[in-house]
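lol ok so funny story. i was supposed to be doing the assay writeup but got distracted and ended up predicting the structure for this chain instead. priorities right. anyway since i did it might as well share w the group, maybe its usefull for someone
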Amino acid sequence: MSSFLQLILLLAIILLFAKAGGYLSTRLGQPSVLGELIVGLVLGPSLLNITHLSWISDAHVEESIFHLGELGVLMLMFLAGLELHLSDLARNTRVSAFAGILGVVVPVALGGLAGELFGMDFNHAAFLGLTLGATSVSISAQTLIELKVIRSRVGLGLLGAAVFDDVLVILLLSTFLALVSGTGGVIQILLVFLRMLAYLAVSTAFGLWLLPAITRRVARLPISFGVVTLALVVMFAYGLAAEVVGEMAAITGTFLAGLMFARTPEKSDIEDGFRALAYSFFVPIFFVNIGLSVNIQTLELDTLWFLLIISVIAVLGKIVGAGGGARLGKMSWRESLQLGIGMVSRGEVGLIVAQVGMNQGYLSSDIFSTIVGMVLLTTLVTPPMLRASFAQPKPQAELDDLQTKDKPEPKVDQEAQ
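and the output, tada:
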């Protein structure tokens, strides 16, 4: 079987089981993303390991699936941005700033303290804390879209907080590496900050003043799906520039690109085209690929307790930190809890930070495996926790009606009548 046939066979299996898992998850009252994540675990090296079966001989097939999944998360965050307006985010800047900053500071501090208590030296403990500070809201964004609350105060605050989180984690990572290596120092940190500001300023200016005119002109051209193609090109450019110029995560760039296109009259055409393309193909591959990249069997029993403790710290750190920040931003207790839960998932961002630590020698292979397990656990628990936090209690009038129905009807005295 040729390499291409191996790839399309695996893609057919992944898409079929992803949609089946998503359907079963919704039937059980959970977001579809949870079912797709579990399908990834079943198909991955933890159980079936479909990418390494005897008839899969091409070593690049797994890499191709990974890259298709990465396109899926870029499109998912673009769609999340397309749902919103800059004015909505601007009104929630206070909440986003507090939640984003405290959502990094608290888990980083708790993770560093846990590392010290487990006997790590300062550098290893500090880097462990940094991996807990990262957040990936792609899982939460998908859940909020399914719940139709992406434009609520919680959804707006969550997505805004993710931008602050991304900026702060990169700054802390750059600061740590500069101080430990002894090169660059303050100048290097300042340079990173200036590159972020330059990227945000240029991309926002282009999106506000040039992009609407370009979109209108392309819409008039006799090109099939010309505007959708333009949106794809701009999305890729924003994501690439975020990584190369701003030293930020590519998903932050694609989210910003979606925000820019949300202002254009062609928004509905772009949204229709992207939804069909993303949710039928790329996004399911992304969620399944998270499970495909994790091998639970590599986790040793002697590190299980450490994994559980780190995972609990990761969950509580975000709920307390980001949720506490949202509360400082004048959100209600319920909304603060919902936002804190939405920041729990580490996803690909946590893995990127951990990989840097592994390459630089600040994380051992055992600790890296533990972090991978933590990323998986936080990713799995976020959708059901987030859905439960948005579950509405039954109104009192409805409860009274139910109690009335349960009561036996009084007997009528026929003789008295």
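Confidence is low (pLDDT under 50) at residues 412-417. The CA atoms of residues 229 and 270 lie 9 Å apart.
back to the writeup now i swear
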